[in-house]
Fold:
Amino acid sequence: MNEHRHGTSTLLVVAALTLILGSIFGASAGAIAGRSVARSNQTLIVQTPAGSPGAGAGDLLLSATVPPPAPVSATTILRSTPITAVATVPAGDREPVESTADIVARTNMAVVTVINRRYFGGFFNDGADLRPVGAGTGFIISDDGYIVTNAHVVALSIAIDVIFADGTMVEATLIGSDAFTDLAVIRVDVPVPGILPLGDSNALRPGERVIAIGSALGNYTNTVTEGVVSGLGRRLANVDGSAMDNLIQHDAPINPGNSGGPLLNMRGEVIGVNTAVVRHAASGLYADGLGFAISSQTVQSVAAILIADGKVSRPFLGVSYIPLTPLTAEMEGVPIENGVLVTETPAGGPARQAGIQRGDVITHINGQAIDQANPFVNLLYQFNPGDTVDVELYRQSTGESLTFKLTLGTRPDIR
Structure:
């Protein structure tokens, strides 16, 4: 696909949300992948691209401004049997609540710093220098060496290093990543100092105390902060108009470099993976204590799939598009206020084969309306590759409302 944003005329800068991938090692910090912005619900999304730098990766809009890394990779997607160490702890089996210091002493060795390295200089790997360009956090979930982190922490990497809490550095292999949920699994082939179990994020209540551990600014490894659960079931918009759902909002201080780090309950169980923080809002208002974590329920299912299959298979419609709102529709001169404006239908994709054209406005998938509450990608990802769906659209060139029946493909792999 070519889910690539065309132009920037529809952008509205009124607030900021930042994926918390940290920079490291001085001059290398500026080499982190370029950032993209998009307007959604009056929030400016500032996001490190989590996918392939080239167009043609899938029905999730990703926009990178850095040149593609060399296709020489030490990060081969591996296949493995499902892990058994990642399991929700039953409520009846939980230990009594511990102190923060006791929890940190027991869990800290299972939290690691994750270093993303890419080539600089030379042509591809010919004379190029493999350098660190960013740091995030991860945590060990299995005695087999599997580590969960954010997809944007390892995006575009040529090599990945892991630093244990005692300072030991080892190489890691990318097992798989899923840009839609911003989760990735990597693996180290050495004995691990400990593992962290997943708790039940569905049992959380606002006001419960939580602990965040992460590599603040990429340098202050295994930094511990504490806060409370501020809200549950939160949604944050992505640059393509899709949204991350079922997020945990909390006020434990988190900084660049905390991406991929665990959010622990007071039993030392991982109930979330830190992924984003709101820094400031419209009219110069400063936002404090607005951190967001991916729920352990999501982590449980996605990590198991990545370890078993190396990827999460997602459906593919095969369109480039601009998400529409009343404002963007007016700016683009489109008479439909909700849906997605098709800007391209690559050859060979299901949309092109079905007869969908550039300039069409897709308004419904299987009768479900596309709007800000139900973004295009979120609706699309309710289905599986191979499913047959009805796509309703408005054809601007003729003024017709049309319905196309098509079979969804499989979204090409991205990193």
